[in-house]
Amino acid sequence: MNKEKILAEIDKIALLEKNWDGYDAGPISKKIIDKSKVVLEHLNDKYPDPILCPSCYGLQFEWDHGDNGVEVYVEDGGHVSYLKVDGPNIRNWEEVQVSNLIEINWLLNWLYDGE
């Protein structure tokens, strides 16, 4: 994982102004940006770079591998949750609040190493 590149992407997202999506979305808050950087610090370097997606709710880190995927959401108030997609067409999924950022590495281990 190239954390310097991802950090630069987060900093670029921090510069988005009101209506950046064409649907009147507000800028991504400093609290979301700061928490996203903390999430990045906790990620294990052995996994691929995530796709970063800003949204009207915050910032999303996304990884896909085969039919499975992991999406980590950083939202207002600094809340972090994840969506674990197990199988094609999002048949089996669960969204869970993250209590310890190390959990994200467990998810990535499941996604890429099958454990």
Question: Which tags fit this structure?
Answer:
115 residues, alpha+beta, five-stranded antiparallel β-sheet, 5 strands, 31% helix
Instruction: Please report the distance between the alpha carbons of the first and last residues.
Output: 19 Å
Instruction: Tally the helices.
Output: 3
Summarize the amount of helix as a percent range: 25-40%
- How many β strands by DSSP? 5
Strand content: 25-35%
Overall geometry: globular
Structural class: alpha+beta
Seen as an oligomer or otherwise, the chain set is: single chain
What is the overall pLDDT average?
Answer: 90
> Which strands sit side by side, in order, in the main sheet?
1-2-3-4-5
Summarize the structure.
With 115 residues, this protein is of the alpha+beta class.
Mind explaining what this structure looks like?
- This protein has three helices and five strands, in the order H-H-E-E-E-E-E-H.
- Strand 2 (58-65) and strand 3 form a beta hairpin.
- By secondary structure, it is α+β, with helices and mostly antiparallel strands.
- The mean pLDDT is 90.
- 31% of the residues lie in helices and 30% in strands.
- It has one domain.
- It has helices at residues 3-14, 30-42, 103-113; strands at 51-54, 58-65, 68-75, 79-86, 92-97.
